[in-house]
Design goal:
Layout: H1 10-13, H2 16-23, E1 27-35, E2 41-50, E3 59-65, H3 69-77, H4 80-91, E4 102-107, E5 114-119, E6 125-126, H5 135-144, H6 146-149, H7 172-190, H8 196-207, H9 209-212, E7 221-223, E8 232-236, E9 239-245, E10 252-254, H10 256-267, H11 270-290, H12 297-306, H13 310-321, H14 326-345
Antiparallel strand pairs: 1-2, 2-3, 3-5, 4-5, 6-8, 7-10, 8-9
Helix pairs in contact: 5-11, 7-8, 7-13, 8-14, 10-11, 10-12, 13-14
């Protein structure tokens, strides 16, 4: 099999011979087609032709590090390649949340090179963070979250999985310094596209981040940390799962409610969010309590408000550490606008 060496391209790695060994299937030829909009990793739909009859899949999705140097360096430095590989290796099959089946995973601890061979969920289609989703799609996404959060809510074993470090609320001082360092670049690039009151909120937030991240001894759980539409697939009339969650590069031991606030804050337009927000949060609460989690409405709503700026932090930080693209710029502006408006609507600062 070809080694996982830095900079290896999909075409050089994903050959018929290599895939035959990795999947233990008689593969005669392959065809590659880029899919997805991710910036840290590159995904290819691989169409497989077999040399003899077998029960192998017609297509799979392969994921490898980004070939764009800035994005790849961010993936290595932030440990995202290790996180996603470890999720599929150690946790995916233990959780009821719908994520792609993993046919093969390999990660090089020395170089951080990785490869994932995943179930192709087509004809399900990717959500669109810029366009937003319908309230019905939002309800699907919210209903899926307790399948991630409830099984390991408050589980001390999470702390033993050191690759889950770096979640919301960990190392608040260093996070504040890091985001503060990046903010000027964010403002220089996007200030003409973002409302003044949201920029002002961002600057106040930077001074309050240690307090913002201090949630005391509240229980943690598995947190996706980037639970948004671009990382979801929705079924179509032609087929596919009703919903599936992808891109596990930021999974962490953190506060699950942050995922809920992050998704609702930017997955819906502000008008749709305001009209459906409380119903969606109650939908999450009902599923969590049905799963045995001790969570009250008052506690959930307080945490939900406190976490409204998590997406604003992501927009500031991520926009400055990945390679710049036109779509990426539009997405980060959309996220900053919607998350900032969310935090202002729910008076985030009153939770500090």
């Amino acid at each position: 099999m070809a080694p996982l060496v830095p900079g290896i391209t999909a075409e050089d790695l994903l050959t018929a011979a290599w895939l035959s060994d990795a999947l233990n299937l008689p593969i005669a030829s392959v065809t590659l087609q880029p899919v997805g909009t991710g910036q840290i990793g590159d995904c290819e739909r691989v169409t497989l032709t077999y040399s003899e009859a077998c029960d192998g899949p017609a297509t799979i999705v392969a994921k490898i590090p980004s070939q764009e140097p800035t994005s790849r360096n961010a993936g290595v430095a932030l440990g995202t390649y290790r996180k996603e590989s470890s999720f599929y290796r150690d946790l995916r099959d233990r959780l009821p949340i719908r994520a792609p089946l993993c046919h093969y995973v390999d990660f090089n601890d020395t170089t951080s090179e990785f490869v994932l061979l995943l179930e192709d969920l087509a004809p399900a289609v990717q959500g669109d963070q810029i366009t937003g989703c319908t309230p019905d799609q939002a309800a699907l996404a919210v209903s899926e979250l307790p399948k991630l959060h409830a099984p390991m809510w408050g589980d001390p074993k999470l702390a033993e999985m050191e690759w889950l470090s770096g979640g919301y609320g960990q190392n608040p001082e260093s996070t504040a310094q890091f985001v503060g360092f990046l903010y000027n670049g964010f403002k220089d690039r996007y200030s003409e596209r973002i409302d003044d009151d949201i920029l002002e909120l961002s600057e106040r937030m930077l001074t309050k981040m240690p307090a913002m991240y201090d949630l005391g001894d509240r229980p943690t759980t598995l947190q996706h940390s980037d639970y948004r539409l671009d990382n979801m697939l929705f079924g179509t009339p032609e087929g596919g799962p009703e919903i599936a969650v992808v891109d596990w590069q930021t999974v962490a031991n953190g506060y699950g409610v942050a995922d809920l606030s992050y998704f609702i804050g930017a997955g819906l337009t502000p008008a749709d969010r305001r009209a459906n927000e409380e119903d969606l949060v109650r939908l999450y609460l009902d599923a969590m309590t049905a799963a045995g989690v001790d969570l009250t409405w008052d506690e959930l709503w307080w945490q939900y408000r406190r976490h409204t700026t998590s997406g604003l932090v992501m927009a500031i930080g991520a926009s400055q550490v990945v390679g710049q693209t036109d779509r990426g710029d539009d997405m980060f502006v959309t996220m900053a606008q919607r998350h900032g408006r969310h935090a202002l609507d729910l008076e985030f600062e009153q939770t500090l």
